[in-house]
Each structure stands twice: as structure tokens, then as C-alpha cells.
């Protein structure tokens, strides 16, 4: 029986740049940073959620992804075509101001939605995320 999601992959264009973005701008913490030859297993996660790891996976040819697929993914990510997830916050407007001051690019200011307050931002590669304060 499945009990929980422990890891999810976010494809990034540059792991070092992504690491700086996710830790310095978003305030996430490094969970794993290990090298196996040329492969680097790099994960981060929210400080208050120790059982979730976001795998910052570089877009490179591999046994699972050939050069043509990598090129397709790269083009879509750079274009801003992927929504990668939702980050929950207790105060969307305050978190928006903090992240914006750190240089995070938002599509616009927080807006009231039927499910709460939301602001959309993208990472340094072009992946979009929702920053959401859910209503009770």
C-alpha cells in the first residue's frame, strides 16, 4: 500500500544555479547532495516538511531521455510551459513580498481565489509554481 510521496522531480537547466535559487531565494534546505561519477543526486525541501525531497534533476541525455527529448523539454521549460507544484504558506502576501525582495519573479501580486490567496512565480529555469494560502 502506498503511504506517502517522498520525492518528486523538478527538471532544471543548471543544478548549481537551481541550488542557489531554491536555498537562497526560496529558503529551502539541502537534503542530499551526492555525486556518483558524473551524476549528481541533489535534493532540497521545505524546512517544515522533512519527509519530502524535491529532486533538482539536470536536463541531460540519459538512459531514460535521449538528446531529442532533452531538447524538447529544455524548450518547454525555457518557454515557461510547466507548472511544477504548489507551495503552501500561512501568509501569501507577506511571503510574496519576502520572495520578491530576494529576486523571485512573479506573474503578478497575490490574488483572492475561491480556494485562498495565490501568487504564481517561476524558478530560475522557467518552472512555474503556485504560492498559496489556503482558506480554512
TrEMBL record:
Metal-binding in keyword set: yes
Annotated CDD domains: VOC_like (cd07263)
Transmembrane segments: none
This protein's record includes keyword Metal-binding: yes
Domain of life: Bacteria
Keywords from the UniProt entry: Metal-binding
Occurrences of domain VOC (ranges): 4-134
Name this polypeptide is given: VOC family protein
The species this protein was found in: Nannocystis punicea
Amino acid at each position: 500500500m502506498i503511504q506517502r510521496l517522498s520525492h518528486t522531480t523538478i527538471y532544471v537547466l543548471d543544478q548549481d544555479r537551481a541550488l542557489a535559487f531554491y536555498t537562497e531565494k526560496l529558503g529551502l534546505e539541502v537534503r542530499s547532495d551526492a555525486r556518483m561519477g558524473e551524476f549528481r543526486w541533489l535534493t532540497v525541501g521545505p524546512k517544515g516538511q522533512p519527509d519530502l525531497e524535491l529532486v533538482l534533476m539536470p536536463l541531460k541525455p540519459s538512459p531514460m531521455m535521449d538528446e531529442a527529448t532533452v531538447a524538447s523539454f529544455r524548450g518547454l521549460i525555457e518557454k515557461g510551459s510547466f507548472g511544477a507544484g504548489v507551495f503552501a504558506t500561512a501568509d501569501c502576501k507577506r511571503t510574496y513580498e519576502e520572495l520578491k525582495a530576494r529576486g523571485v519573479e512573479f506573474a503578478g501580486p497575490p490574488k483572492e481565489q475561491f480556494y485562498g490567496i495565490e501568487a504564481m512565480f517561476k524558478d530560475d529555469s522557467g518552472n512555474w509554481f503556485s504560492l498559496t494560502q489556503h482558506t480554512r
